[in-house]
Amino acid sequence: MKRIIDVALVAMLCVLFIGCAKVQHSVVQSQSNYETIWKACIHSLSDVQFSASSTDMASGLIIADQAVYGGPGTVSRLNIMLTKLAGGVSVSVKFVPPPGTMGGGDIVDNYINALKKRIPDISVLQTK
């Protein structure tokens, strides 16, 4: 019986460590103007079930949250940073899950796809 409990405990720990959500990060770029991209970034949040909790258009910062089920007061976070470039704008998108949560696999990819629907010339520069 003790052996079964030990095996179950090890299996549960493996699921927690292997299946845990991890930080995701991508950087994209567009030749569209800053205000157009800013608006697209804000509107794309709803496509991935996030809500803007803090925004500052002048600095390019958007912080968005999504409630995590089973974790009262716990949120997943998208940090989005727009940077003006000589030929357009870059957008850095970082997904930060709460510790110990599972899932969140394609949040950044889904958000980038939502942006592409609104800004067709978006190109991915970096994905981690």
How is this structure best described in words?
The protein is α+β, with helices and mostly antiparallel strands. The chain has one domain: Alpha-D-Glucose-1,6-Bisphosphate, Chain A, domain 4 (2-Layer Sandwich), CATH 3.30.530.20. The protein is 31% helix and 35% strand. A hairpin with a 4-residue loop joins β2 (51-56) and β3. The chain is globular and about 45 Å long. The termini are far apart. Mean pLDDT is 81; it is low at 7-19.
Main structural class: alpha+beta
CATH architectural label: 2-Layer Sandwich
How many β strands by DSSP?
6
- The CATH topology is given as Alpha-D-Glucose-1,6-Bisphosphate, Chain A, domain 4
Average pLDDT metric: 81
Helical region count? 3
Helix-strand pattern, N to C?
HEHEEEEHE
Number of domains: 1
User: What overall form do the CA principal axes indicate?
Assistant: globular
Backbone CA Rg: 18 Å
Overall helicity: 25-40%
The CATH class label is: Alpha Beta
Q: Tell me the strand percentage band.
A: 35-45%
Largest sheet: 6 strands, antiparallel
How would you name the CATH homologous superfamily?
Answer: START domain
